[in-house]
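Final paragraph of the annual report: two paired records, presented back to back.
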Amino acid sequence: QVHVVESGGGLVQPGGSLRLSCAASGSIFSMNAMGWYRQAPGKQRELVAVLTSGGSTNYADSVKGRFTISRDSAKNTVYLQMNNLKPEDTAVYYCNAEGRTVVHGFSLWGQGTQVTVSS
């Protein structure tokens, strides 16, 4: 069984920074990609940033130059460094982990962590 847990959300003023963490644990044989998505009230969940096992990254246009995704492969952990935060970044941030156990593939979501940008 595989579990995905996020941490690091909170309340920050516009222009501030936060760092989110996401750890996947359990019977993981290999990891294909880990990424961050967000969902604001009344809106659909959207991609924020994704990092593949090969090191490729993809960012939403709205966060390019402000957010950075990175990883610790040994710990199956991915981070999202968010700088120069704006009120429109307010959302619940979800981590997704895609990989394989020795038996089957998986694509799992964490429980979400709230990020609120407000003065």
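The closing record of the year follows.
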Amino acid sequence: QVQLVESGGGLVQPGGSLRLSCAARGFTFSSYAMNWYRQVPGKERELVATVETLGLKTYADSVKGRFTISRDNFKNTVYLQMNSLKPEDTALYYCNAKRSSHVGGGEYWGQGTQVTVSA
């Protein structure tokens, strides 16, 4: 059974840090690009960061220099280190796994973990 289980969300003051984790089960983790998305009620889901299978990382402009995505293929886990958090980072953060259609395709989502940045 495929599972993506996020953890690490919570309430933090502006300027603080959080580390999100996403543990994957039930598929070949190393074959999938791993993504973090976030969504605020009433808005579209936003891609925050991606780490490709070979380690290439990309970020949304709004989080560059503050967030760092990483993956551990031995632990089947992807992380999002979030520093210098701002109130506008408040959202439900989702973990996503996606594989290119050229190598079989497939996409999975976690249930989300809430991040709230507030004084």
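The chain has a mean pLDDT of 97. This concludes the annual technical report; the extension proposal builds directly on these records.
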